[in-house]
C-alpha cells in the first residue's frame, strides 16, 4: 500500500501526462483544455489518484488506457466545471418571465410548453426557470402541459440537483417573496440548508446527457438554455452543437447563451433580440419553418 506521504511526493504532472489527459478529455467530452488549465487538471485529478490508492499521474494514465469505460464517470465528473447560482445572468430570466412567457401563454392554443436546461449543473438554473414559469402562469399550471428538461454530463451534480437541497446563503440575494414561496427552511441540524418547493420539482425532469452523443428527446422546445458550456468546446464542435440546437428549437423559439459566448458563423441563422438571447426566425411571410421532431 502506498502511503499518503509517498503519494504526495510522487504527484507531479509532466507534459506527456498532461497532453494525454487533454486528448482523453477532448475525445470523450469535446472540452478543450489548454496550458492555462494545467493547475486545474493537477488539482482535480490528484484527488482521484489518491482515492484510487495510486502513486502517480503516470499510473492514472495507464488506468485510463486499461479501463476507459470503468473510469469514465469519475473522469468526467472531475473535469467538468459546475459554478452556478439561482438566477445567474438575471437578464435572461427577466426576458423569459416578462416577455417570452406572457407571449407564449397568449399565443399557445395547445397549452404546451417545453424548456431545456442543457447544462444544468447542480440545478439552480432549471429551478430558476421553474420559478419564472410559476410566477408567469399565476395558477394556470394545472391547465397546461409544462415540462422543463434538465440535463448534464456530470452524474454527481445531477444527484444534487434532484435532491434540491442547498446552503441557505445560496438564496440570500433573492426577494423575500420568492424565498417564502419556493423554498423551505431546514430545521434542527439542517438550519443552514434550504429545500426547493415540491411544486418546482414537479415541473423538472433530470437526465444525464453528454451533448456530444445522441440526443434522445423527441419534439422541439420553446426555449433552450445553453449557458457557459459552449466555451469549453472547439469551434467545429460549437458549430455542430448550434446546428443541433437549431433543429431542436421550434420556429420562433429562443436560445440563451452565456455572457461570454457567441454563435459565431451560426449567427446568420438566428435573430439577436437581446444580450446573448437569440431567436430562431419564422419563415418569410410569417409562415413557420417546418421543424421536424428529432428522435
Q: Any overview of this molecule?
A:
The protein is α/β, with parallel strands linked by helices. The protein has 2 domains: 4-79, Chemotaxis Receptor Methyltransferase Cher, domain 1 (Orthogonal Bundle), CATH 1.10.155; 90-286, 3-Layer(aba) Sandwich (Rossmann fold). It has 11 helices and 10 strands. The strands form 2 sheets. Strands 6-2-1-7-8-10-9 form a 7-stranded mixed β-sheet. α4 (57-66) crosses α5. The termini are far apart.
Number of separate structural domains: 2
The rounded distance between the terminal residues' Cα atoms is 49 Å
By secondary-structure content and strand pairing, the structural class works out as alpha/beta
Largest sheet: 7 strands, mixed
Spatial order of the strands forming the largest sheet: 6-2-1-7-8-10-9
Q: How many β-strand stretches?
A: 10
**Proportion of strand residues:** 15-25%
- H/E element string? HHHHHHEHEHEHEEHEEHEEE
- Rounded average pLDDT: 86
Q: What is the CATH H-level superfamily of the largest domain?
A: Vaccinia Virus protein VP39
CATH C-level name of the largest domain: Alpha Beta
What Rg is obtained from the alpha carbons, in whole angstroms? 21 Å
State the shape: globular
Helix percent band: 40-55%
CATH topology of the largest domain: Rossmann fold
Amino acid at each position: 500500500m502506498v502511503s499518503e506521504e509517498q503519494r504526495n511526493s510522487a504527484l507531479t504532472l509532466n507534459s506527456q501526462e498532461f497532453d494525454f489527459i487533454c486528448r482523453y478529455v477532448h475525445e470523450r467530452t469535446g472540452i478543450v483544455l489548454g496550458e492555462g488549465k494545467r493547475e486545474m487538471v493537477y488539482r482535480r485529478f490528484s484527488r482521484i489518484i489518491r482515492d484510487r490508492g495510486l502513486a502517480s499521474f503516470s499510473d492514472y494514465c495507464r488506468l485510463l488506457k486499461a479501463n476507459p469505460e470503468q473510469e469514465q464517470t469519475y473522469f468526467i465528473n472531475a473535469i467538468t466545471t459546475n459554478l452556478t447560482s439561482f438566477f445567474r445572468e438575471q437578464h435572461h430570466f427577466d426576458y423569459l418571465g416578462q416577455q417570452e412567457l406572457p407571449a407564449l401563454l397568449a399565443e399557445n392554443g395547445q397549452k404546451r410548453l417545453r424548456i431545456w436546461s442543457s447544462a444544468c449543473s447542480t440545478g439552480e438554473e432549471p429551478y430558476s426557470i421553474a420559478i419564472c414559469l410559476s410566477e408567469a402562469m399565476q395558477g394556470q399550471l394545472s391547465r397546461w402541459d409544462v415540462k422543463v428538461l434538465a440535463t448534464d454530463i456530470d452524474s454527481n451534480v445531477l444527484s444534487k440537483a434532484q435532491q434540491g437541497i442547498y446552503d441557505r446563503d445560496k438564496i440570500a440575494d433573492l426577494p423575500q417573496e420568492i424565498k417564502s414561496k419556493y423554498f423551505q427552511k431546514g430545521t434542527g441540524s439542517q438550519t443552514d440548508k434550504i429545500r426547493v418547493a415540491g411544486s418546482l420539482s414537479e415541473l423538472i425532469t433530470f437526465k444525464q446527457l453528454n451533448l456530444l452523443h445522441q440526443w434522445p428527446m423527441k419534439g422541439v422546445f420553446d426555449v433552450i438554455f445553453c449557458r457557459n458550456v459552449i466555451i469549453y468546446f472547439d469551434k467545429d464542435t460549437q458549430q455542430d452543437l448550434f446546428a443541433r440546437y437549431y433543429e431542436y428549437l421550434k420556429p420562433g423559439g429562443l436560445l440563451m447563451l452565456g455572457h461570454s459566448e457567441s454563435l459565431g458563423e451560426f449567427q446568420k441563422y438566428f435573430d439577436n433580440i437581446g444580450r446573448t438571447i437569440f431567436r430562431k426566425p419564422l419563415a418569410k411571410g410569417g409562415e413557420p419553418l417546418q421543424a421536424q421532431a428529432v428522435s
